């Protein structure tokens, strides 16, 4: 039997980021969503394209080997899929976690296979898997919570990938920036070992990577936007084309780099390479 991953959320991040890398890792992906138009489109199309965009050009990949289930109308099917899955991921937005948790809890509770399922929330929030984990425990019978970790393991993640505005006729296809970072805790998996997903950078502690993103990517964008607005620029790209603004952004990132290097023992070369890539 092949590897199977359940992906809650069939939006641009779900299709263009998480599912792309799950597919590349050899998983059959089962999308779960409540949006009928998304589910219908996935069911009616055997594949879609993900186009990675960078300064060096574009690369298009095809994602296939997936199925899609509407959890609003086919809850029992979702439970059955989770009961035999290797991985459960989600990209639904932090506020939606409490709504998908009861269904995930039922699927986990129905598991009889010996290896626990890996649960990884891929949200733009710190500790999103911990949040989902809490909702799942709240939706599980207290007696079954005692043995929950024999059926599921929960690992926080930090994600970074920009999805620009999509063409109006894109359909399922997704245009996405080539640069990405998907960092996941490996310690929760213990002796069982983490799932085999090459795109993930497995680490013991997430904090250095979360702070590096905040004080590099987010700080860089915020600085560019602030000085760009002051100079009457309309877009980030237009602002960065201005040498004075670009130089200011670089000085800011040099300052934040000194903090990251000193606090988290990330090497100066590694931080410089990170800045150059983003």
TrEMBL record:
It catalyses: D-mannitol 1-phosphate + NAD(+) = beta-D-fructose 6-phosphate + NADH + H(+). Residues 205-277 form the Mannitol dehydrogenase C-terminal domain. Gene3D superfamilies: N-(1-d-carboxylethyl)-l-norvaline Dehydrogenase, domain 2, NAD(P)-binding Rossmann-like Domain. It is an enzyme of class 1 (oxidoreductase). Keywords: NAD, Oxidoreductase. One of its GO terms (biological process) is mannitol catabolic process. Monomer. It holds the Pfam family Mannitol_dh_C. PANTHER family: ALTRONATE OXIDOREDUCTASE-RELATED (PTHR30524:SF0), MANNITOL-1-PHOSPHATE 5-DEHYDROGENASE (PTHR30524). Residues 4-189 form the Mannitol dehydrogenase N-terminal domain. GO terms for cellular component: cytosol. One of its GO terms (molecular function) is mannitol-1-phosphate 5-dehydrogenase activity. Belongs to the mannitol dehydrogenase family. This is Mannitol-1-phosphate 5-dehydrogenase. Its EC number is 1.1.1.17.
């Amino acid at each position: 039997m092949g590897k199977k991953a359940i992906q809650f959320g069939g939006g641009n991040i779900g299709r263009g980021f998480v599912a792309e890398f799950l597919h590349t890792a050899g998983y059959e992906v089962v999308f779960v969503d409540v949006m009928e138009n998304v589910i219908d489109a996935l069911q009616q199309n055997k594949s879609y394209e993900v186009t990675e965009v960078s300064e060096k050009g574009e690369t298009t990949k095809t994602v296939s080997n997936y199925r899609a289930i509407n959890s609003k109308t086919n809850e029992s099917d979702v439970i059955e899929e989770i009961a035999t899955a290797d991985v459960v991921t989600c990209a639904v937005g932090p506020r939606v976690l409490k709504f998908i948790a009861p269904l995930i809890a039922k699927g986990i509770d129905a598991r009889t296979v010996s290896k626990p399922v890996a649960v990884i929330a891929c949200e733009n929030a710190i500790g999103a898997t911990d949040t989902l984990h809490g909702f799942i425990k709240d939706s599980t019978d207290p007696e079954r919570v005692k043995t929950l970790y024999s059926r599921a393991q929960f690992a926080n993640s930090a994600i970074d990938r920009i999805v620009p505005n999509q063409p109006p006729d894109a359909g399922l296809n997704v245009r996405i920036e080539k640069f990405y970072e998907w960092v996941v805790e490996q310690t929760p998996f213990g002796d069982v070992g983490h799932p085999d997903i090459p795109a993930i950078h497995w680490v013991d502690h997430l904090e250095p990577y979360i702070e590096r993103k905040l004080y590099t990517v987010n700080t860089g964008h915020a600085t560019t936007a602030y000085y760009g607005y002051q100079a009457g620029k309309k877009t980030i790209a237009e602002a960065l084309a201005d040498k004075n603004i670009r130089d200011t952004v670089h000085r800011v990132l040099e300052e934040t780099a000194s903090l990251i290097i000193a606090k988290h023992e990330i090497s100066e070369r590694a931080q410089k390479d990170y800045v150059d890539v983003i």
